[in-house]
Each structure stands twice: as structure tokens, then as C-alpha cells.
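Researcher: Sequence recovery benchmark, item below. Answer with residues only.
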């Protein structure tokens, strides 16, 4: 294979890899970050009273869809804080800590629950279009935005390679 053919082959592989990684990362970043980001933009605050606070054990499946006999589920925990809030005279009850219901370790869930004492007031955030949809926190989806940025860099690199890279002597 000549040097020019090797360079063309390498160029094709780099462009393909850049675009594949870019598209995958952009899709993942958008899929995981859209809902929390839109909640931060659209949800409104309401005064709430904590009714109950505890943790819930959930069984998480491995992310590999082609589960083999060695893949096993694992236990994770959700903070469940039940709270009551009012929107335009109507009373609502919510139990979500965040809009995505992201599970974690038992100590993580317990540390969140410890911050919410039944009978105390807190802020809840609700969707004005659907006041039954609420959460106690609206975290910024940093990880999703970082993955999205990596994807955009991959797409840009693929585009640059596609339009600017020319074989030596070609």
C-alpha cells in the first residue's frame, strides 16, 4: 500500500471515529440533560412542608442490554421526601428529590433525607403546565453538558479532518 493510500485510509478512519463518537456523545448528552435543563428553565418555586422523609431501595439493572449469566442487578437507593405544596389554591403532594429520580448509594440517599425534617418548610419546584410534576431540587446537568461538549468537539474534529486534511504530496 502506498503512503498516499495509507494516509487516505487513516483519514477515513479518523473522520469516521470522530463523527461516531461525536454523534453518540451529543445524543447521550441531550438525552440525559434535556429534562433537568428544561425543568431549571420552566419550573417555578412554591413553599412546601415536609410530610415524610426516608429512603427507598431500588434494583438497578446493568447497563449492558446483552446480559450474560455473570451480569447481576445491584441495589441502589433513592431519597424519598414526601411534601405538600399549593399552586393557585390547589394542594399537591410530591415525593421527588430531583426530576430524574437518580439513585445512588445508601449513604448518599440518607444524607439527603437528613436535610428534610417532617414538619419543616422547604422550597419545591413545580411545572406550571402540570403542577403535579415537582421536585425539591433542580440540579444543573453538568455531566450531560460535558458529554455534549465532548460530542461537539468530536463532530468539529471530524468536519475539520473532512474539509482540511489533504494527503502529503497530493
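Model:
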Amino acid at each position: 500500500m502506498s503512503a498516499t493510500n495509507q494516509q487516505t485510509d487513516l483519514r477515513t478512519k479518523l473522520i469516521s471515529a470522530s463523527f461516531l463518537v461525536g454523534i453518540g456523545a451529543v445524543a447521550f448528552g441531550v438525552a440525559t440533560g434535556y429534562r433537568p435543563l428544561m425543568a431549571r428553565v420552566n419550573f417555578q418555586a412554591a413553599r412546601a412542608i415536609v410530610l415524610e422523609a426516608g429512603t427507598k431501595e431500588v434494583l438497578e439493572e446493568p447497563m449492558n442490554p446483552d446480559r450474560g449469566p455473570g451480569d447481576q442487578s445491584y441495589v441502589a437507593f433513592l431519597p424519598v421526601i414526601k411534601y405538600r405544596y399549593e399552586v393557585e389554591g390547589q394542594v399537591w403532594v410530591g415525593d421527588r428529590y430531583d426530576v430524574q429520580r437518580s439513585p445512588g448509594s445508601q449513604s448518599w440517599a440518607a444524607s439527603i433525607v437528613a436535610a428534610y425534617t417532617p414538619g419543616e418548610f422547604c422550597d419545591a419546584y413545580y411545572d406550571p403546565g402540570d403542577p403535579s410534576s415537582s421536585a425539591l431540587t433542580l440540579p444543573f446537568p453538568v455531566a450531560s453538558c460535558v458529554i455534549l461538549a465532548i460530542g461537539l468537539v468530536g463532530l468539529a474534529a471530524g468536519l475539520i479532518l473532512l474539509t482540511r486534511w489533504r494527503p502529503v504530496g497530493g
